[in-house]
Amino acid sequence: MxxxxxxxxxxxxxxxxxxxxxxxxxxxxxYYEGKDALxxxxxxxxxxxxxASSMAAMxxxxxxxEQVVHFALNHFDRIHSQQAFQRMMxxxxxxxxxxxxxxxxxxxxxxxxxxxxxxRDLLNEGKRSGExxxxxxxxxxxxxxxxxxxxxxxxxxxxxxxxxxxxERSAMELRRKAAVEYLGLSIFTDRKHGAEVAARVLAATPxxxxxxxxxxxxxxx
Length: 221
Known about the structure:
Radius of gyration: 19 Å
Distance between the termini: 38 Å
Strand content: under 5%
Largest sheet: none
CATH class of the domain at 60-204: Mainly Alpha
Oligomer: single chain
Mean pLDDT: 84
Order of helices and strands: HHHHHHHHHHH
Shape: globular
Structural class: mainly alpha
CATH topology of the domain at 60-204: Tetracycline Repressor, domain 2
Low-confidence stretches: none
Number of strands: 0
Helix content: over 70%
Number of helices: 11
C-alpha cells in the first residue's frame, strides 16, 4: 500500500512491494496477473476495511442523528489515520476525472455505494422523526464530510496564513472537537439535544494515532 500511495501505479516497483510483504516477486505474479491487478486488490482490501469501520459507526442502538455524527467523526479520523489510503483515493479520483481506466469505479459499486446509501437513509429517518432539520440530505452530507476533507487539503495554505501547523495533533484534536460540536448545533432541530449527542460521541471515541503526514515548515516573513 505504501509503495503505491507514495509513487502511484506507474511509479511503484514490484521489487519494493515484494520486499515489504516478505515474499519474492515471482510469488506476487503467481497470485496476481500484474501490477494493475495487485494495485486494485490492495485498494479494495483497504477500502473494505475502511467501510466496515464506517458502517460500525452507524449502529441501531443509537438515534439516527447520533449515528450520523458518529459517521462524520469516523470520517475525520479515517482521513488522518489512513493517509496511504487517502493518497491512493486521490490518485484514482484524478484518473476518473481524466476519463482514464481506473480501479475506483468497481469499488464504488461494491463498497462505497452501500455505505453512502445507509447514511442517506439515516438522514431521512432523522428528518421523519423530527430529530434532524428539514434540509436536503445530500447537502447535509456535503457539509459534514466536505468540511473534513477541506480541513486536510487546505492545511498547508492555512498553516502559512496562521503561521502554525494544522496537522499537529493538538490542532487536529481542537478541529475534530469543533467539527462534531458544530454538527450538534447545526443539523439537530433541538440544539440542546444536539449538543448532548456531540458530547457523547466525542467521549465515546478517542482520537486514533495519525500516520503518514509529511510535515511542513512555516516560515514567517
